[in-house]
Amino acid sequence: MKTLKVLTIVAITGLVGATSVYASPFNAESNKMCQKNKEHRNGMKEIFKKLDLTPEQKSAMKENRQAMREQMKEKRSRMNRKRGMADMSEFVSANGFDKQSFVEKATQKAQMRIDMRADRFEKTMNILTPEQRVKFVILLQETQK
Questions:
Q1: Most trustworthy range by pLDDT among 5-14, 68-77, 80-89, 118-127
Q2: Which residues contact residue 122 at a Cβ distance below 8 angstroms, ignoring those fewer than 6 apart?
Q3: What is the Cα–Cα distance from 96 to 86, expressed in whole angstroms?
Q4: pLDDT at position 46
Q5: How far is CA 131 from the centre of its chain?
Q6: Which domain holds residue 48?
Q7: CA 94 – CA 80 distance, rounded (Å)
């Protein structure tokens, strides 16, 4: 009964906190970051358009994206089973909050996302010819100036 009360208080506090964060002026900054990410993706699309990819390379890129989408769907469905407060029950008990375990779990999830991004980019770069890679680096550096 006491554990249920503690979990209820944690859940309500989380909901109130999430609502106030979403309504805060800092949310506008988050929208700016979203816009920056969108611009970055569009910039990458423009770079790849300038690389003069062959039809085989285009289809390989498309297959690569499709495979990554399927992999993401599968991983999301696995992760969504333990989403939000259900995951928090591992770290909260009547004795308190296990910060160490929480940080370790969050770090593992972040590392998984980083690894997936790196794998995706590596596969994309492997599709390019050496000349296209050189051109890609030059175009990327130009956009970052």
A1: 118-127
A2: none
A3: 16
A4: 87
A5: 30
A6: 2-143
A7: 25
